[in-house]
Structures are given as structure tokens and as C-alpha cells.
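tool=predict chain=A
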Amino acid sequence: MAYAVTDGAASANTRRGERYSVMPSYDFRTTRLYSDAPLAGGGVVALDRDRSHYLRRVLRLKDGQEILVFNGRDGEWRATLEGGTRQAALRIADRTRPQAATGDLHYLFAPLKSARLDYMVQKAVEMGVSQLRPVLTQHGQITRVNLERVRANAIEAAEQCGILCLPEIAALVPLTHVLAAWQPDRHLVFCDEAADVADPLAALAAVPRRTPLAVLIGPEGGFAAEERTALLKLPHVVRLALGPRILRADTAAVAALALVQAVIGDWR
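tool=predict ok
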């Protein structure tokens, strides 16, 4: 039986056969805001019009109220809102959390329609991916991706879920280009509804932990035969199906990333 301890400690204790797992203590009540500016105690971060409008008009925050701010590099800092409605800014106080180490989990996906792509990006960020890489496949129906919208959804997910690391967002390129430049030491979890794998957990258990990883979800039309052939030629490939039912691509993303993180990722 596992018990979550939220005192911020960094160890786990066992007593009478029960394992006590330790989880970090997060402040989920204070508004969190992403800023690309450098963060340091005593500094002042000017806010653009959109951020000012969000804090002042949407959240109705006043001067002197506390905000948590992060930039994906310098950890998380406590700040206070100041400057009135016209020149809103954050005065940085003290650091609440150091920058977390980033994982090495790439997520490759065929583009989806806007609303479902938004959902998939948010969930992938919550699951801890370090890179979002859209790829063009032969049977994909969407051929464009709004990378600014992808970035906005990634930031929103990070702000809401206490995440300190933002994923790299790669440009949309054909899958063939990605495979041609593939890093040979990166293991690829290739999710394919046609795979003859009875136990995906056992298949993943054969992958070494703490190794560079990538997860690939294809289009709803499936992979072309030549794409499967090219994928299976890579040096470290785990081809697996996600159960006995056909999943929509955004559902498959959550299922695959949960499996990977639970078996060989940072959930252990």
C-alpha cells in the first residue's frame, strides 16, 4: 500500500511491509505564470499586454498579490504583482523550487485537428515529454500544425500542473526525414494497432531504464507498409499494440505515455 508524503523530502521509508513513496510538495493555490525572462531574487519582470490582461482583468489580481513564476531554466520563484494596470510587472522575491532535471522522452505524432491536438499536447506535457515532434505520414489527413498554438498549450499545461520544464517543440517534417536522421542510441516505442504483441508491459520491460526514449503515434489511417518497414529497421524498436481496441490518436497518446512512464520512465 503506498502513501504519498507531501513534506518535500527526498527518500522513501518502509514500515511493516508498507512502502511510503515521497512526492514533492506543490503550491497549487497560488497562480503560476510562465515568463521567458531570466529570474533572480530582486529582479523585476515586465509583463506584456496579454499577461497583464490575464492577471488584472481575468483573475482580477491586485498590486501586492503573490504569483509563482517560472521560465523552464531557473526554477520557480515567488513574485509580487506591481505597477498598476498600465505597467504591470512582477517583482521577484525568493526561489520556491530549483530547476528540475529534464527527462529524455520524445513524443512523435501525426497532426490532428485543432481541438484534439490541443488536448493531446496538454496531456503529453503533463506526462513529462521533453520534445514534441509532429511528423507527416502517408495516411495522415492534416498537413499543417500551428506551432505557436502548440507552444501556448504546452505553457498552459505547465502552468496548471506545477511543471518546471517546457518541452522542445520541433517543426513539422516528413516521418522519412526523422528516420533518416535517427539517433541510434534512442529507443523507439512504435505504437501500431497491427502489432502482434500480447503483453505490452512485458515488451517495454526489455528496454533499459534511463535510456533516451521516443514514442510514436501514427495517424488514424494507420501506417503505410513502407513506413512500418523503415521503422522496424531502426536499431532499438519496440513495436506494440495498445490493447484489443482501436484507440483514437489522442487517447492512444495518453495510454502509450502512461505505459512508458510506468514501466521504464520516471513513475518508478
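The longest helix spans residues 249-263. The mean pLDDT is 88.
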